[in-house]
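Late entry, evening session. Most of the bench is empty. Finally got around to the prediction I had been postponing all week. Sequence below, unchanged from the version circulated by S.P.
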Amino acid sequence: MSTVKVRAVVPFVLFLCGILGATPALGQESGSSYEVTVAAGDVDRRGTLVSFPLPSNLAGASYHLETGEGSSIPLQIGDNRAWFVLDRLDAGTQRTYRLERGGTDAGDVRLDRRSRSIGVSVDDNPVLRYWTDERPRPRPDVDSIYLRGGYLHPVRTPSGRVVTGDYAEGHSHHHGIWAAWTNTEFRGRTPDFWNVHDSTGTVVPMALDSTWSGPVQAGLQARHRYVDKSTAEPVTALYEQWTLRVYDVGTERENVSYRLFDLRVEQTTASESPLVLPLYHYGGVAVRGSDHWYGPNNMDFLSSAGKDRANGNETRARWAYIGGEVEGQRAGLAMLSHPTNVRSPQPVRIHPEMPYFCYAPSQLGRWSIRSGEPHVARYRFVTFDGSPDPEVLDRLWADYAYPPTVTVTAPSQ
């Protein structure tokens, strides 16, 4: 597949207005004369998320897009950026909308706040839950050392089937969708933040910094810290920020029903000391699948390279899928890796019996997270009922990796 250069373009006249402090005309303030043009590039677009920077003089108000055919599209504004869903646009074509003041009632992505967690739903259907604090143990046999927050569970398909597991018997340190490094070196010690039962390291939630919701997406930003427990006085080695966005997109498009959400993980050192990551076969952002999938024959795996559970371990992939039966029906989720991720396309760890996998850049050799050089990992997740369709997953990955080009045109003076 050929790719298209990705950028959101705001013409030079808008830049000059911001620099010179020019006062926009009334038509500019209302946004009614602005045009937003979306170009598909080399990819057929179907239910594609589109985002672009909003001209600074239009901040502080709500807007929607007019198609010119009597219909409108919800536009969500946040941090001077606009988001909407492009229903359909064929490769090589473009479409222009008018930016109009006023929101729309279409779409409904909501947050459900509880004392230890925040859930996100689309049209009142739960999609996932983020644990802001330690999730209580589900069974009395779970040792307190395994208690953890700062992860996603349960994660659901459109039909409501749960496709993640948590505190699994024998592997209580696996938690839905979570992040941790395993084999590390820090100040001459070797803390393990993954296998918390070894008591050398752990990952602890710090703060929930922000939340938002709207017609297109809802999400949150939260911080965690990686604590080295292998010394007499525990010390923080890394700070980690999660940015989660759950979208109202993907249901009943082309007879394919799915949920879509993005996770951006940024890690920075807590001091001048680097966190060194030697060669190792797992560690990073990981998925623990449903407990129904335990065993060598109960979980299916498929990658963008066409690999399965038997031959996919330690191979590189743009996307990876796991799934199996849940409540008598097939369900699963795919994890799409952004091409800007370190060592992309990243290799995967697939366990031969347990229902889990992770993208593991350390499989390709020793590397480090250093002071002043944040490590950023970006992944898009797709949950769905039924079997995976590689063509759909390829298209969704292309949307993620190479989104449409957007041009915002100011009104004539």
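Two things to note before I forget:
Helices lie at 12-20, 26-30, 390-401.
The longest strand covers residues 235-247.
Will write this up properly tomorrow.
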